[in-house]
Design brief:
The protein is an alpha/beta fold. The chain has 8 helices and 8 strands, in the order H-E-E-E-H-E-H-E-H-E-H-E-H-E-H-H. The strands form 2 sheets. Strands 5-4-1-6-7-8 form a 6-stranded parallel β-sheet, sandwiched between helices.
Length: 177
């Protein structure tokens, strides 16, 4: 049985071009739950395996990743720093405009971008990038515009699955394993 990611398929060919990963936070890097504590404390849980994949992508593979999120959170900035994320864009109500600016400033083309989002604010980006992806629990409208839907939910390995597939397509897995 042939996989959508097998050599020669459209996904495999698109994956070979990817140099920048773009992630939403809530529902992609986390399970989408927000936990609030006393005195404006906010808590988020990030998947360690997703994080390891992002760190490998950035540091060992020499690629880039960025975060574009509509919310603002010190926790997200901290996590981005830990993983070597090139930039964290917070409070972005127009994610597509943010992404266009970043690409222009960094001389990257849309076909070099893989984006993982889960909700309506991500759709404009997903419609334009080289590889549009989402977790299995993304809203139906997002799934309908994606090239690939992970078999795992947000915050539970969807990001790592994507990175593993990209690294395999680009011949990078041997240096990680």
């Amino acid at each position: 049985m042939t996989s959508a990611w097998d050599e020669g398929t459209r996904l495999h060919e698109a994956a070979k071009e990817i140099r920048l990963l773009v992630f939403d936070v809530d529902g992609v890097l986390t399970n989408g739950q927000l936990w609030y504590g006393p005195e404006d404390a906010e808590f988020k849980a990030f998947n360690v395996k997703d994080g390891q994949g992002i760190a490998w992508w950035n540091q060992l593979a020499g690629r880039q990743s960025i975060i574009i999120t509509a919310r603002s959170s010190e926790i997200v900035r901290r996590r981005g720093d830990e993983l070597g994320v090139a930039a964290v864009f917070e409070g972005q109500k127009n994610k597509w405009a943010c992404l266009q600016t970043y690409l222009s400033e960094n001389n990257l083309a849309l076909n070099q971008v893989a984006y993982m989002g889960d909700d309506w604010p991500d759709i404009a980006c997903l419609q334009h990038v080289g590889l549009a992806t989402c977790p299995v629990d993304a809203v139906a409208e997002v799934q309908s515009v994606c090239d690939w839907v992970a078999s795992l939910p947000g915050g539970q390995g969807a990001v790592r699955d994507l990175i593993n597939r990209l690294c395999e397509a680009q011949g990078l897995l041997p240096q990680f394993v």
